[in-house]
Amino acid sequence: MKRFIEGEDRSQITLFPDRLEDYVAEDNPVRVVDAFVDQLDLFGLGFRRVDPSVTGRPGYPPSVLLKLHIYGYLNRVQSSRRLEREAARNVEVMWLVGRLVPDHKTIADFRKDNGRGIRKTCVQFVSLCRQFGLLANASVAIDGAKFKAVNNRDRNFTRAKVKRRMEQIEESVERYLHQLDSADRQEPSLARTTKTVRLKDKIATLKEEMQRLKKLEARMLATPDQQISLTDLDARSMATSGRGSGMVGYNVQAAVDTKHHLIVAHKVSNVGSDRSHLSAMAKQTKAVRSAWMLGMSEPCLGGCRRRPIPRVRHLAQITRRLLTAWRTAVSLHRFAQKTSVPFSYITAPMIHGVNSLSPKPKASLLDFCPDATSSIRRKMRSPISSTLTPSDKIAPQLMSMSSLRRSYIAVLVASLMDGAGL
What we know:
two-stranded antiparallel ribbon; alpha+beta
């Protein structure tokens, strides 16, 4: 008796073969994709070739290609060639598209020609989620991510890159000319002749490169953002978190429901700054959802403050501010431990303003921390002594801080001192 689990014999003949329906479970997500696409009005959404032509070779139904694309997005398979392979070997995809295997060119052309219809399909999906009550929560988080484009950094040119490259070429030409002068002072020989020919070829190549850069510079200066990409024309150079690790790509902004993590709205842009997209993303999200109220506000976001748009929380900006406040709070905590300065002399300029000695604050710090412990609240209400000016004991950089950031720091310092028993 064998002690291993045995599989079925590949050569076994069955009278009634298994159906594709038997391989897909009732709770498989592909059934949701199939039901969702079947109830869409593809013609109304703007998809092309919904009605087949009378003549010519029959084409693939747009519904089949749309199901294939949605399946790829759900399973992180975006490449058209990979989708073609999945259609030929994946049982779920076989069930979804009825064992059709479109060519990768057909898949790519469908995505290129029906961009507007795919975006409207996303809107229909958000509307369906709202009908099911999945977007009843009013809190939405907005953040951005950078995606690399199919464009090498060497084939992206900005004003600084072109200037730096031209300077490098000029330095190389000067170095080669100096080597030519040195070779001319040597005795005639075969080695001297070979070296001279090689140096002249390098100089000629660099001059051609200089002419090419001048033409690219003229094209670059004619663009609105003074940047050009040769492979992916819409891609732009963007800074990333690492120093000197910029990339050529796109900035994808997304508004996500905080409860079910569903994408409510999205936008693809070639502008690298997240802050410039926040106001537009808030307006787009408000247009998608009817009953609207976004989370916590951040006063520095001028675009949302000047317009009648609900208050928003931008994860990246709040994270950066809290990290900066935390570093400053740790430094102030160490300063208080070394000098034994009372807590009120540190937090008073943050709460009342640097030049204010009035015991009544202009903006209460308690508004920013409703969950503070009783000991922290007592320290926040500490009276301000008139015998010592707080600004004499505070670092000069605190003078220029905004009231919100000073409040963040005060909360953190209060928490640190509360934990240290100060």
